[in-house]
Amino acid sequence: MVVWFVAREVWEIRFADVTLSPVYTAAMGLVNDEKGLSMRFPRFIKVREDKGIDEASTGRELARMWELQNAAAGGDLTVAEEAVVDGSDEGAIDG
C-alpha cells in the first residue's frame, strides 16, 4: 500500500547518518541516478512551529549532508558534487 501525505508542518528530525536507498526517492538523481537517500534511525524531536513548509529541508540539502558525511569518511563525491552544482532539486523532503 502506498500512502501520500500533504505537508502541513515541519518536523525536526535527528538521525544517525544518510544512506543510499533503492526504496526511498529523496534526492534521487542528485547523488545517484537510480537510488535516493534515506535517514538512518530517524527520531522525531519536535514540530517546528517557527518554520513554514517552504523552509523545510530540500533534497539538495539532504544530498549535501550525504556529501559532507562521505567527505569526512574519505568517500568519492564526484557524482554528488556535479549533481549539487547543477542546481536540480528533485526529491525534495518536507521535513
Describe the model.
The chain is of the alpha+beta class and 95 residues long. It has one domain. 23% of the residues lie in helices and 20% in strands. The longest helix is centred in the last third of the chain and has 14 residues, at 59-72. The strands form two sheets. The chain has a two-stranded antiparallel ribbon. It has helices at 59-72, 78-85, and strands spanning 11-14, 17-21, 36-40, 43-47. It is globular. It is built from two helices and four strands.
Number of domains: 1
| Count of helical stretches | 2
- Secondary-structure element sequence? EEEEHH
Low-confidence stretches: 77-95
Main β-sheet, spatial strand arrangement: 1-4
Overall form: globular
- Distance linking N and C termini: 22 Å
Helix/strand/pairing class, anyone? Answer: alpha+beta
Instruction: Report the count of strand segments.
Output: 4
Q: Give the biggest beta sheet.
A: 2 strands, antiparallel
- Mean pLDDT, rounded to whole units? 81
User: Proportion of β residues?
Assistant: 15-25%
- The Rg value, from CA coordinates, equals 13 Å
Helix proportion range: 10-25%
